[in-house]
Every structure is written in structure tokens, then in C-alpha cells.
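Hi Y.,

Following your request, here is the sequence exactly as I used it, all 169 residues.
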Amino acid sequence: MRAALDRLYDGAAWLAALMMIGLLVMVLLSILGRQLGFNVPGTDAYAGYMMAGVGFLALAHTLKRGEHIRVSLLLQALGPSARHRAELFAHAVAVLLSALLAVFSVKLCWQSWQFNDISTGNDATPLWIPQIAMAVGALVLVVAFVDELVLEWRGQRVAVSSDEALHNE
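Below is the corresponding structure, written out as C-alpha cells. Let me know if you'd prefer a different format.
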């Protein structure tokens, strides 16, 4: 099960990386078009879609690598038992909030598909297509938070901490 979950998080991160490459291509096309006098319709819109996709698809991978912002000052002051309870509470709230985000993201994507909603730009893209990345990223984030909650509940969660921020000069 652990290997499958890790592949899920890594797969979402790879999709985010591919979308980041797509974002670069859109920006470069826009810049080259201005410099060389040609226009590729929709590059700005597609760059925005790619940026949103990158952000959402990378959330779970970032969480599992311990790179999300955490305020651990209070946790460090607590004893082991109180810290465990605080972590359980925080992860339960995170599961709830990320599940709400996922439900509304999927609902938005579904409604865009149902109503055949298209972008107002000159690209006229059906909006459910770029919204899929947001919905998938939010769903994978829920899975990651449930994973973290279960690991904390079992006492198997290893808090990843990065000292990189402490050593930059």
C-alpha cells in the first residue's frame, strides 16, 4: 500500500512538472510572438491553466516531503502525548478542509462539463479540461492528509524537517 501511495504522490508531481514545462512553452511562445511579430491565440490563458495545474498537482507531493509551511513552535513546547493529540487534531482538520476543497473542485469541474462552460478568451477552451488538474490535485491531497492522519494515529508518522531554511545566508 505504501508503494502505491508513493507512486500516486510522485505521479501527481510528475504531472505538475510536465505542466510546468507547458507553462514555460506558453510563456516562451508569447515572448517570441511579440518579438517576431506573430500571435499564438490563447497562450496567456493556457499559461494560467498550467500554473493552476502545477500548484494543485504538486500539493500532495510537497506535503509528503515535509515542505509545507508548519508552525512548530507550539508543538515543540508540548510533551509527547499532548503533541500526538495536537497532531491528530491538526491532521483531522486538514482532512476535513482538503475534502471540502476536493468536493467543490470536483463539483466545479462537473458543472463546467454539464453546462458546456467555455473560457471567455479567444481560445474558447471548455473549462472542465483545465479544471481537471485542480480536482485531481485536490483529491490526491485528501489522500495524502488521510495517509498522514493514519500514520500519526498508529504512531508511525515520521515528521520530515528541512534545515535548509536555517542555513541560507
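The mean pLDDT is 88.

Thanks again,
Q.
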